[in-house]
Amino acid sequence: MKFRWDKKYLYWGITALLVIGASICLFFLMFRGANFKDGVTKIIAIAMPIIDGLVLAYLLTPVLNVIENKALKYIFKKERQELSDKQRKYMRMSAVTLTLLFVFFIIYAFCSMVLPQLFKSIQSIVFQFPVYVNNLTEWLQKVLADNPDVETYINDLINTYTPELRSWMNDTLLPQMNAVLKVVSNYAFNVLKALWNMIIGLIISVYIMGSKEKFIGQAKKAIYAAFDIKRANSVIEDIRFVHRTFGGFISGKLLDSLIIGILCFAGTSIMGTPYPVLISVIIGVTNIVPFFGPYLGAIPSAILILMINPIQCLYFLLFILVLQQFDGNILGPKILGDSTGLSSFWVIFSITLFGGFMGVPGMVIGVPTFAVIYAMCRRRINRNLKKKDLPTETDEYKELGSIDEVSKEFIPNHPVPETGKEAKEKKNN
User: Fold this and answer.
1) Each residue of 171-216: pLDDT tens digit?
2) Which of 313, 293, 294, 292 is nearest to 303 (CA)?
3) What global pTM score does this model have?
4) Do 407 and 386 touch, CB atoms closer than 8 A?
């Protein structure tokens, strides 16, 4: 007797296997979460050079495309499709080389122009820190002398918490100095390890950029092999949407932060603000973080300026307020446009959520990541509503109480009261 497969039982078996596997994973996440986290962290640490290579290749690909499509096109006087395989290979190798030279030039320019100023500023802060503290103390004493009530209140606070602070330093901080030194040494080792991973990642990115069309073709081939044509088209379209969202947001935010850093340097130099290079780098780097970035950079910069010149601190805060208004209302929308499609609430929500899980990197990638999740959920919801012949506009549901099952008519939550004429006609009918 010939054995015949029944697809129904095969699907049931696969479903049961997936349910059992998901239950096991859920059990380990709930009761063995630490081991699972350690395993994931170890895998990520091993794969970090590859991850760095993928990220570098993704960030450098726009530069590669510009060099290849604009600059080298004038050398060959042909479109890429019209070139021979040998010419195409030579063109790609030249474009990758010029891209790396461009990146090295940017890094060299930054190191030669900005880093010496940063080191000089930090060295000056360390050597003159007692002077700055003395200036701040004299300024505070002068302010308190003019406000005796505030002086009395602050002296009471100092007298109350000084013994507790001294006790904390003697009993807690000093005995843990060895642990602090150990943490610092581990941090230095991690920095060196990250630099090594970056070097390996840069080498990997060269191979990825050199054969990016082949890798993309292999990925599409795998997608069409795994799904039916309709689902595969949908998956590829979703990937393109993720690319547009991430690519547009990350590249736009980097350009926006660079412009803000340059404008900050110009403004602080004109105003005579202390350490303009250091402060501009802080403002530019922290501006990469959406929404909270300006505050993360302005607060430590303002404290530093306050210790040197309180009046300059006030001018700096006013300047940063104007600069961030310009960035939020003019420059940012001009560069980024509506690349995420998220309201201010969802921006704050995504930054808080991903920042809590991943720290500062989560705050940077949280907005585009949540924008992708939000867009996919919205697309699925709208698709299901269209299948039920229901409107997709949110405004239609604001005053909704219920929907008639037969006519699909929207019944408001607070029905509009009938006029006297309508009530009379309804009564006559």
Assistant:
1) 665 666 666 666 666 777 777 888 888 889 989 999 998 888 889 9
2) 313
3) 0.66
4) no
